[in-house]
Specification:
The chain is an alpha/beta fold. It is built from eight helices and six strands. β2, α6 (118-123) and β3 (127-136) form a beta-alpha-beta unit. α2 runs antiparallel to α3.
């Protein structure tokens, strides 16, 4: 058996699912107002003063802190099943389908949040490795559960889930520096292949 590893945002999609999910859940006006409010933090992130995971926690907290896990799951499932297909690249879906037709194990390895990718992956029989939110007493507390699934964490999570030497060939698909370690795991890696 072969293993096919896909980054999600920018590789499978032509837009960022985080931004699109916030617009879906909170409305475009609130999303853009939030960008203005968060602009100083975003500048510090771009200047590498604030690390990726912390910037993302602050970003998500602004829109969703104190939202219940049940409500987050409901919004995530609705978004996954009604909106994600609008931003996927046809060539990426074709590649996923070809891997599955060949009997390969297909896994999405994403820094996006599992709650809005889970139903989309389940519908397509795709394994999901993604960032998870932390909930206290059933409410989002503004932090991640574990690490942001980005950069070295992607490779670490794949190795924790799979014994890689059992696969004949490992394929990996990515589109950014955050996928570097994921691409290095592969026998055959593809950078921005579906554009």
């Amino acid at each position: 058996m072969n293993l096919a590893l896909f980054d999600f945002d920018g590789t499978i999609t032509n837009k960022d699912s985080l931004e699109e999910f916030i617009k879906f859940a909170r409305g475009s006006s609130r999303y853009y107002a939030g960008l203005l409010y968060l602009a100083p933090m975003l500048v510090l992130y771009k200047l590498h003063v604030i690390p990726n995971h912390r910037a993302k926690e602050i970003f998500l907290s602004h829109y969703f802190k104190d939202v219940s896990e049940r409500e987050f799951e409901r919004l995530g499932e609705e978004y996954a099943l009604t909106q994600i297909n609008k931003i996927v690249r046809p060539k990426a879906i074709k590649a996923i389908n070809e891997h599955q037709k060949n009997g390969d194990a297909v896994t999405i390895v994403s820094a996006s949040i599992n709650l809005w990718l889970k139903a989309w992956c389940q519908k397509r029989n795709i394994t999901l490795i993604a960032t998870e939110l932390e909930f206290e007493n059933g409410v989002f507390n503004g932090r991640f559960k574990g690490h942001n699934c980005y950069g070295p964490e992607k490779a670490k999570r794949v190795k924790a889930l799979y014994k890689l030497d059992v696969f004949k060939t490992i394929y990996a698909y990515g589109d950014s520096s955050g996928d570097r370690e994921l691409l290095k795991l592969a026998d055959r890696s593809f950078y921005k292949p579906f554009r």
